[in-house]
Amino acid sequence: QVQLVESGGGVVQSGRSLRISCAGSGFPFSNHAIHWVRQAPGKGLEWVAVISYDGITKYYADSVEGRFTISRDNSKNTLYLQMNNLRADDTAVYYCAREPYLVVGVATFYFDYWGQGTLVTVSS
Amino acid sequence: QSALTQPASVSGSPGQSITISCTGTSSDIGDYNYVSWYQQHPGKAPKLMIYEVSNRPSGVPDRFSGSKSGNTASLTISGLQAEDEADYYCNSYRRPSSYVFGSATKVTVL
Hints:
Oligomer: heterodimer
Helix content of chain A: under 10%
Number of strands of chain A: 11
Structural class of chain A: mainly beta
Largest sheet of chain B: 6 strands, mixed
Mean pLDDT of chain B: 97
Distance between the termini of chain A: 40 Å
Low-confidence stretches of chain A: none
Helix content of chain B: under 10%
Largest sheet of chain A: 7 strands, mixed
Structural class of chain B: mainly beta
Order of helices and strands of chain A: EEEEEEEEEEE
Shape of chain A: globular
Number of strands of chain B: 9
Mean pLDDT of chain A: 97
């Protein structure tokens, strides 16, 4: 069955860096675009970033542009989010979410499977 | 990047129908049929309920339906059941190359 498992969250000081991961299994990982979505405690969902199936195309939310980098290693079926210069308002549960496809490389614009999330807490 | 606008809460009795609205702009909902809806129970990951405005994934009950008119999308739950009590989020593609969620609607089954 399709599984997405995030890891690497924790407590980090403001201004520092952290890298979180998302391991996929049960599906052809290298065929899917994958997104990061976050949710601050008690708040709503916020889209963070997306990476294409081949890792070439990447888009970011304005709130993280220039500080966060999304990447993937298809040989390891793993997605990453490198977060630099972290701020208190980056505190959130970070979910990875799969975008389905009909044709590889053609966007479908929604998220059909989600991981359980990893909590990142930025302390000041 | 401003969120799509949803009512903070909607409630109904078991068996009733409720509708959740999601208002965007001509840069997102108004110009694309890429609206999706997600259900989230407390402490759980979101679950896809509707995609491309009105399509239901397999396994989602047919009491969930979606529609769109202009810059506003809607999710209707017919025959409300206790397990439908959750937070609901709309999402849309927004040009150029980002996505935006709604502000969340808490559905309460009375």
